[in-house]
Amino acid sequence: MEKIAIISDIHGNLPALEAVLADIKQRGVSRIVCLGDLVGKGPDSAAVVDLLQTVCETVVQGNWDLGITLPQDKPAGQWQQKQLGAERLRYLQELPFSVDFSLSGKRFRLFHASAVSVYHRVKRKSPKKDRLAMFHNTEMTGDGPLPDIVGYGDIHIPYLLTMKNPSETQAPAKSHEGLMLFNVGSVGVPYDGIPQASYCIVEGVRDFTMPPSGFSIQFVRIPYDIERAVQLAVDAKMPDRERYELEIRTAIVHK
Q1: In the sheet where 2-7 sits, what is the strand order?
Q2: Residue 67 contacts by C-beta under 8 Å, 6 or more apart in sequence?
Q3: Range of 172's domain?
Q4: For residue 247, how far is the Cα from the chain centroid?
Q5: Burial 64-94 (b: 16+ CB within 10 A, else e)
Q6: For residue 145, what are the CA distances in angstroms to 59, 125, 189, 214, 223?
Q7: pLDDT category of residue 1 using cuts at 50, 70 and 90
Q8: What is the pLDDT of residue 209?
Q9: Rounded Cα–Cα distance for residues 47 and 50 (Å)
Q10: Do β-strands 149-152 and 106-111 pair in parallel, antiparallel, or remain unpaired?
């Protein structure tokens, strides 16, 4: 059986990432895919980018990854750009939009926010038409085989749901099998009220030519040293560190 760890939304929180990577290694998982938002919010965006380049099979682009490459007019964004430097900013700007793979006769598609843009947000309770659109081919995903299962990040709230597959022009061919949509949550700044890093492990048989077989999607929560994460932000004199501290302590979004 093949195992793939899927992580997302680290947001410069190095202690949370290190705890997740240690757990992934302990479970014997060697393949890691990151769904973006490596940077911002936390103080160690540069270290996170460097580390993920060494351990990830694929990293796709998040809205913060793309956004930080644009001109910044606020002190927090300017500070993050300075920490990252030109080479890392170029790396973030060139990240791919999505990744497709097959396990156990199922086609998986992973991206950061939605099938149309890193900035287009789809929540768990978004209208069904918006959730079904996650399975469409778009200019950003390309014209490959349509997915049965879609995983994404962006909203920092893990969930999994299944949906009936209507007979629509863009619906996958195997309509009787239904669709599955899941969100991996956030490693660095969860927003579901649980102040622990969140990630997923998918498991199945890699050979897509064989008859369909069993697969699983496992949600994992990992405690980490939040006090160290807070202190790193203080030591770095990071702008807006008070909001970052509040969010990682409470796992609730604060505007």
Answers
A1: 58-59, 31-34, 2-7, 197-204, 216-222
A2: 40
A3: 2-250
A4: 18
A5: bbbbbbeeeeeebbebbbebbeeebbebbee
A6: 21, 26, 33, 21, 38
A7: confident
A8: 58
A9: 5
A10: parallel
| Domain CATH code at residue 186 | 3.60.21.10
Please tell me the predicted confidence (pLDDT) of residue 213: 82
Packed helices 45-55 and 14-26: angle between N→C axes, nearest 10 degrees: 20
What's the pLDDT at 233? 98
pLDDT score recorded for residue 176: 44
Q: In 163-240, which residue ranges form alpha helices assigned H by DSSP?
A: 226-235
Mean pLDDT, rounded, for 103-123: 96
Q: Is 183 within 8 Å of 159 (Cβ atoms)?
A: yes
Where do the H-state alpha helices sit in the chain? Answer: 14-26, 45-55, 63-67, 75-93, 128-132, 226-235, 241-250
Dist CA 251 CA 188 (whole Å):
10
Report residue 241 as tokens: 């560190």
pLDDT of residue 211: 67
Query: Does residue 177 fall inside a structural domain?
Result: yes
Answer whether 182's CB lies under 8 Å from 217's CB: yes
255 in a domain, yes or no?
no
User: What six digits make up the tokens of 47?
Assistant: 């270290």
State the total domains in the chain.
1
- Provide the 3-class DSSP secondary structure of residue 228: helix
Exposure on the CB side of residue 131, measured as CA atoms within 13 A: 21
Q: Is the pTM of this model over 0.85?
A: yes
Q: State how far the Cα of 5 lies from the Cα of 254, in Å rounded to an integer.
A: 28
**Whole-number CA gyration radius for the chain:** 18
